[in-house]
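User: These chains co-purify. Model them together.
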Amino acid sequence: MEQLIVLFVIIPLASAFLIPVVGKLVPYFQKVLTSMVLLALTILIFSYLFSGSEATLIYKVGGWEAVENIPIGIYLVLDGLSAILLLVINFIGLLAAFYAVGYMRRYTAENNFYTLLCLMIAGMNGVVLTGDLFNLYVFLEIAVIASYVLVAFGIEKNELEASFKYQVLGGMASLLILFGIGMIYWLTKTLNIADVAQLLKGNSNTSAVQFTQIVLIAGFGLKGAMIPFHAWLPDAHSSAPSPISAMLSGVLIKAIGIYAILRLFFNMFTISYELALIITVIGTLSMVIGVLLAIGQWDLKRLLAYHSISQMGYVVIGVGMGMMILTKGGEKGVAALAIAGGLFHLMNHAVFKGLLFLNAGAIEYLLGTRNLKKMGGLGKNTPITSASSFSASMAISGIPPFNGFFSKLLIIIAAVKGHFYLLALLAVFVSIITLGSFLKFQRYAFFNKTKFEGRLLAQKIPFTMTFSMVVMAVLCLVMSLMIFPGAREVFLTPAVDVLVNATNYSTTIIGF
Amino acid sequence: MIVFIMCFILFLVGLYGVLTRRNLIKIVIGLTVMEFSVFLFLVLIGYIAHGEAPIIVPGMKEPVFVDPLPQAMVLTAIVIGLATTAMLLSIAIRIYKKYGTWDIREIKNLRG
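Assistant: Joint model of the two components:
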């Protein structure tokens, strides 16, 4: 299995190379290849998860063995946390690629679209697998540059403006990350995350380390669109083609923003209370302000984009509370509960927010507008879109028995048990506003009496689009089962273990 | 030490350009200046006083080498920077074709 890890990066990269070369000659090559590649990778990661091996798999690129326990080459590391991220990336990517077969008929240059999608997936897979800081930066740039282009894919006024804004802010974030990596190299003279963790273990409270931590939080916070750094997200996510919006909102901000913060601050730096407090405060701000900004939106995709900020806030407060409990020496069980809630919400959010963006795409495919005020009475015409978006709306607002309810419940229980009563109250409050906001979407789009005035662009939604939406709507229900014993041990427990027993990461890799 | 301060000043010059200029191309230039200040910082952390290029030549006596790893990192980062700059400029040219202006005050379709 160790040898197979590298396939997660190589296969999408190779298909990104093959598509523009072969795709011009063979019809349907790009669509079939992308779907097949992502299906194969999804099966591969499922086989790792269900094999039940708790072991961390390490692949040494180029076969460079460690010399006197000092790692030399680049390591690819697959553990529980990377595994659930890989599952989310490849599975949502598969559904988005399949959806795009029907949706992208409106656009020209389909070859370029699938090439960039494969590049983005290769970059994200690399980010979650790598054990080397500079390698993380390189993969992150691959993913992000592909996403810059995909946001501008429509090349109309709005898309170009959103892409430019995204690129300027994203470029600054990359610079901050590169600067932070340079600082870490200066302090420790190594780039391997596990090795850095060993070297920083005793002296993590010097001002240089704290400065580096703040720089990295700002950099990855910009990439993950936490609230003081969120300005680019609503523009970029609402301007991209819908399958890409689903990938950006559902996967990209998690893989390169939240995942990197989790990996670096749990497994590389020693967690300090002040830092945990900063992360929790950022998460709370995102959760509350994101949903307040979403209230006044009438553009469907902008509304969904603001809700992404708010829902990522839930993930961050779950994890941040876990950090705070761990540093204060509280009960490990409560910390594990909070972190499990955060990670579970991360997976759930990928599914229901992906589905909502696909629904928005289907509505746009039919009507050619995203303005909620102009829609109406779609419930009868499009039963599948209506039903699946209802399931996703209920999931995001936390209504039982959908998956969003269980992850929010875990976070709120952990907040009450850890005596963060204000956070618990805010989480419930934000959930209620979210419900209101999505009832608005349901009413104006599907159950309104007013009819859409104007010409329908298509009579029927293509099969591939409905298929992806139905699969995700079923997942919104089925993923609730992941909280129960049996499924929990497969997905969540290994990932939570990686974060709760944070020092195990470096000892497994270095070997002492 | 003075070199690091110069490097930081270069970073601030770039940041000033990005924040205050109204022209798309000047924003790109500001971003590039910032980028190169970070590259300069990376090269500086690998520098050792009176160090030589890290190539072993027969007959060397107690050579002092500079750290080659930051140099390799900077080379990679420059290539990535090339890609981002090319992408930014091509988008800026497209924006000019659509809006007929370089001024960001007149490019404001997206708000709220």
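The first helix of chain B runs from residue 2 to 20.
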